[in-house]
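Morning!

This is the sequence you dropped in the shared folder:
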Amino acid sequence: RTVQDGKDEHLSSEPEQIKAFRDTWELGIHSYLSYLRDRLLVARELLTESGSCFVQISDENVHLVRNLMDEIFGSENFVSLITVVKRSPQPDKYLPTVTDYILWYACNKEALKFRQLFKPKEKIDTKEFSTNDITSSKFYTSPAFEFQGKKYTPGKRYWSTSIAGLTRLAELNRLVVSGNNIRYKRFEADFPFQYIGNVWADTTVAGFASDKKYVVETSAKIIQRCLLMCTDPGDLVIDPTCGSGTTAYVAEQWGRRWITIDTSRIALNIAKTRLMTASFPYYRLYDEVGQDIRQGFVYREVPHITLKSLANDEPPASEKLYDQPEEDKKRLRVAGPFTVETLQSLNPIAPEELETPAEELESQAQFEARVFAGLTASGVRNGAKNEQAVFLRVERRASPALPAEGYWRDADGRERKAYFLLGPRFGTVSKGQVNDAVKECRQLGDADWLVVLGFAFDDAIENREQTMSAGTFQVTRARIGEDLLQEGLLKKDKKAASFVTIGEPEIALLRDEQAGTATVEVRGLDIWDPINNRLAARSVEDIAYWMLDDDYDGSNFLVRQVFFCGGEKGEFKKWRTKLDGQASATAKKKAEQTLRIELDEDAWERLYGFQSHPIEAQKGRQVAVRVISQFGEESTRVLTL
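The structure's back. Tokens below.
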């Protein structure tokens, strides 16, 4: 699905763009190289002895990044600099830039896993040939050989084959005189494929990027080629910059295990949606009985006539085409099970760690300073342009429950007061912390708003209104952007969405007493508007998708049902149209055979929508509903039947 910030008609107020990523660096290239060096050092430690690391970079910084990778991997482990064509030439002031570069380094070049890839020759003339040297520096044989009445020697080198082999080549009309030497005739038809080298001119992304899911998305063909060259089915691939999930998508297609990482929740949710809606060809396994994917696929093989096979009168050698496994047309594949991991709710610590070191206290103070500076610079956003609360000032408080207070102006110009609960840098905001903050807010009696700032939250925490002796105040969760953890790297940007409020889904439980079932219905998303001091209801179409765990254990959310919304039904219909071809009678049968299930037509109809499949209404059973907004923010509600 295309990355969008939502359409005007989908919002009750003026929409605001919240970018999926930030690409500005406080100290320019110095910050970028520091960021990259830290990640490459970790990548080097994670690589297996036969592993590879690929970095795609433009011509602007390729020389700097190569120096950096030489330092980390060692110049002796440099494998290749691959040139990839990314677009057709467009008018520019000087020469149009049409290429990117891929730096390829090995963990240990001597142990590197490598699979040669080929591509078909565009045109094959059976009569056309080129000549190759028939001598070698490797010791073999060097007596004179008579050809067409003249004797030839390899000079200070050696023949590449025996005298008997040379005689056989002469009989096959595979030798030709070139000056004072004889050479081998290699016909274009000897091998209808050509080696793929380090210039990839067939990776151009179409000018109208309708297939792109992300602004900075890498062509799937580039990732596929890197993956097929250096891995086998069952191998593990890691991409620390997930983006739209192209690496995971390609790895899933080709039977590789994968881990992909990103700090942007928008990016992760685009990737999740992409994988959950994907279908792939079913490749035949080499081990059909044991179903061990590590044995690889059954690949197409093509004959390769070589000097050696002709000279030794052997059958032609065969080359495996690793990008052309045999496909089972009667079967269909979807993405396998995958998990989405985030910060844990529990943070175990050893007794000796209970006393916080001085340097850690200093680091925490610096982090708090960055957070409070961000509140005055970019404020708290909720996705509507005219509902952004930028704080006039933020002041520290000597309280662990409420470490800061701030002031902002509402639509009437009246100054209002907020208190802040700041969650841990590397942990989850617990319900107990929120309860303590709410209790202190009630005691103070002057709060208009309690903002719970954190990177992750317990599922039991909800946005809600609280009463106190002098009125009420609103409790709102706001996600801190992970860029605030990157001290000294990213620029301070007033437009940065460093704090985004998390809406509270409006959930209804519809019971069918006669059938003994219940259905969950998502009716909208409520987000606090601090400017107008009200709870603003957002359309259900602001929800990208939502998931359901109909047997929630209180800690682990297991996706048992998923429903796509995607902003508008037209977008879903495009995807559904593609599936309709696959859901025809024969293809539906294929899917049912592959997945060993019966596809329910009613389930297809509910796939785009806001009502769940019926759930058995067992008393005390917990049901968790997780709603993902267009901005990638997740909100979870737990219901008890």
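Headline: Residues 120-193 form one domain.

More detail when I'm at my desk.
O.
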